[in-house]
Specification:
By secondary structure, the chain is of the alpha+beta class. Helices cover 33% and strands 21% of the residues. It is built from twelve helices and 13 strands.
């Protein structure tokens, strides 16, 4: 019976990286200036003074030590605190498409087959550069792929939802191979003036080629099963959109995009403790239930490639799923270098750390995040 195979993956990593120390220095300089500018209001009790950040705080809260970004200068400039990513003309390849194409070419090279065998392109990511034309169609055109393409957004779970969608297309006979890309410019939706979240995100792009078992060559990974889950929550949110302009009072000019330090709810906002409390049991139970449905013993999984949001969250999920303390090899963490890259995180972990598997051994790609949303993809190494 035809089933889906993860035939290849690809990765694009920006050249520039920001350490926690650099990020903290920028934030603290900004906070010191803000406190000075608002000293009277702070003294009157009308505003709260900004609390300094620290490397120790960031690493204890998240496990993150650095992150890759498209533009370092703008992020660590206390007078800006926003990446500088100039707009491009409509005749140029857009920023997200350019990142996605680079990751896709990496995957295609590893796959070793012509793009003429790809029948669909999915762009699955948290923040699309524009509503339309679809980013996926631009990527499709840039790579010379026929067939169809569309965008999908399930926030941090977009990649696993994309794999599930690709697997369903293949099972239904619509196509023989699907390219799924995850370009994430998370630095552009992050509020770098928010002490509780200024360190969370980085920029990256990943790509996955999902192919029919009828045409797949040796190697790769059989997709044993996929499961998706969503539960509505406001605890992770970004309210930026085209209706923001329409909702303003008459006569009040509306900026095209939020200015630095303004309209905080139009950027990434989360209630971290609530997210931790809600998501960990939801995801842990989902993994265990899905494994049982597939006849798998969770404790026998060779490796977990979880969404990379918070090391404490991942460690707790790993313990709940495996029933013991996972080793570093079993529960892959790439937060040190990449930070949270939204939909791309679990794919980066899989791409960089899928070695050491014998044919027949099983691992899990799992994502979770805003929505709430969660996706599980159990994979078995092929001979």
């Amino acid at each position: 019976m035809t089933h889906a195979v993860i035939a290849a993956t690809g990765l694009f990593t920006p050249e520039q990286s920001v350490s926690n120390a650099e990020l903290v220095a920028a934030y603290n300089a900004w906070a010191e200036r803000w406190n000075a500018d608002n000293a009277a209001a702070i003294a009157a009790g009308e505003l709260e003074a900004k609390t300094p950040s620290s490397v120790e705080f960031i690493e204890k809260a998240s496990g993150i030590k650095s992150r890759f970004v498209l533009d370092k200068a703008g992020v660590i400039d206390p007078a800006r605190m926003v990446p500088n990513i100039p707009e491009r003309s409509n005749d140029e390849l857009s920023v997200l498409a350019e990142m996605a194409v680079k990751a896709a070419r990496d995957a295609i090279a590893a796959w070793g087959k012509p793009v003429s065998e790809i029948g669909a392109v999915l762009c699955a990511a948290s923040n699309m550069q524009r509503p339309y034309p679809a980013m996926a169609i631009e990527v499709q055109q840039a790579l010379g792929i026929e067939g169809f393409a569309f965008d999908m957004n399930v926030a941090c779970s977009s990649a696993t939802f994309g794999i599930k969608t690709a697997a369903d297309f293949i099972a239904g006979g619509s196509v023989k191979a699907v390219l799924m890309v995850n370009p994430e410019v998370c630095s552009a939706h992050l509020n770098f003036t928010d002490r509780d979240s200024h360190f969370i995100f980085g920029d990256v792009a990943t790509a996955v080629i999902v192919e029919s078992s009828d045409t797949a060559g040796p190697g790769g990974w059989d997709v044993l099963g996929t499961r998706l889950k969503t539960v509505f929550s406001n605890n992770i949110r970004n309210n930026f959109g085209f209706l923001n302009k329409a909702g303003r009072a008459t006569g009040v000019p509306a900026p095209v995009s939020p200015e630095p330090g303004q309209q905080d709810d139009k950027m990434f906002v989360q209630q971290g403790r609530k997210v931790f409390r809600d998501v960990v049991p939801m995801v842990s139970d989902m993994i265990v239930d899905h494994a049982a449905e597939l006849g798998l013993e969770p404790q026998n999984l060779k490796r977990l490639w979880l969404h990379q949001a918070n090391v404490n969250m991942n460690q707790l999920i790993g313990r709940k799923v495996l029933g013991r303390e996972p080793t570093d090899e079993e529960n892959v963490i790439i937060l040190d270098d990449y930070a949270n890259t939204s939909s791309a995180g679990s794919i980066i972990a899989f791409h960089l750390h899928n070695d050491g598997f014998a044919a027949g051994e099983v691992g899990l790609i799992c994502s979770f995040g805003a929505g709430y949303s969660a996706g599980t993809v159990f994979v078995r190494k092929r001979s």
